[in-house]
Design brief:
Structural class: alpha+beta
Largest sheet: 5 strands, antiparallel
Helix content: 25-40%
Distance between the termini: 66 Å
Number of strands: 7
Strand content: 15-25%
Strand order of the largest sheet: 4-3-2-1-5
Order of helices and strands: HHHHEEEEEHHHEE
Radius of gyration: 35 Å
Length: 240
């Protein structure tokens, strides 16, 4: 709650400074504005009365009145926010002591690389102590990633488990000397030896040739590709 109040006050001060108005007046209006889903303003919940502002208001509305049901409304708002968050949220895999992990970059680290470390201790349901390059860090589970897969995960991610129908349709490798789809295997030396010496492959189709670049590109005749794999062709209007 304190962090949220500081965020709201900072936003009000920045807006008031940008508009050239009084920041205290903006805070006064915020204190007197009813909160969404609460039917009462922060001033009413704190002092049981509305505050006087530059807007005209009836004297009857300024009389003290205790606001009831604040706790129940706050609990309802928190439960509603939790149910909305839980629609797409999921629990992260549990970490054990000794697992290799990668930790989120520290504040100020502009490399963006997750540093490799090892889990040393679990101090809370979602808090762990990590050893990264000889230094201990305490981090939340959301800032940690697994660095390597366990044997069970590697076994479950094998191709025959994920795509069994595709693996079944793959042609089996033939024994040496009986030929395959890639070509015939010829024996080496006399006819008694069955050691494969060479494989005759069918000629592959020649790749399509691309026209060379223009002379003003720096290296005439060299094809330059972009990161997406497309050919870079400078416009002809720049060829002076």
């Amino acid at each position: 709650m304190a962090e949220s109040a500081v965020k709201i006050v900072k936003s009000l001060c920045k807006r008031a400074k940008a508009d050239g108005t009084d920041a205290w007046m903006a805070i006064l209006h915020w204190r007197n504005t009813p909160t969404e889903g609460m039917d009462s303003s922060p001033a009413q919940r704190l002092m049981s009365r509305r505050l006087k502002t530059s807007l005209p208001v009836a004297d009857s509305l300024l009389q003290p009145q205790v606001v009831v049901g604040v706790t129940e409304k706050l609990q309802w708002k928190r439960r509603f926010a939790k149910s909305t968050y839980d629609r797409s949220a999921k629990d992260l895999p549990e970490l054990t002591v000794g697992d290799q992990i990668r930790m989120k970059p520290l504040p100020g680290d502009r490399t963006g690389r997750w540093q490799l470390g090892r889990c040393v201790q679990k101090v809370a349901p979602r808090s762990f102590v990590m050893d990264v390059n000889g230094t201990l860090y305490r981090r939340n589970r959301v800032d940690l990633r697994m660095a390597e897969r366990s044997a069970e995960v590697q076994q479950a991610c094998r191709p025959e488990r994920i795509w069994p129908e595709c693996v079944a349709e793959m042609p089996a490798q033939t024994e040496a000397g009986h030929g395959s789809d890639l070509g015939e295997v010829e024996p080496e030396g006399n006819g008694d030896s069955h050691t494969p010496s060479s494989t005759t492959l069918s000629p592959a189709p020649a790749p399509a040739t691309c026209p060379p670049l223009s002379a003003h590109s720096g290296t005439p005749g060299r094809t330059v590709h972009t990161r997406s794999g497309r050919i870079s062709r400078p416009p002809q209007r720049l060829n002076w």
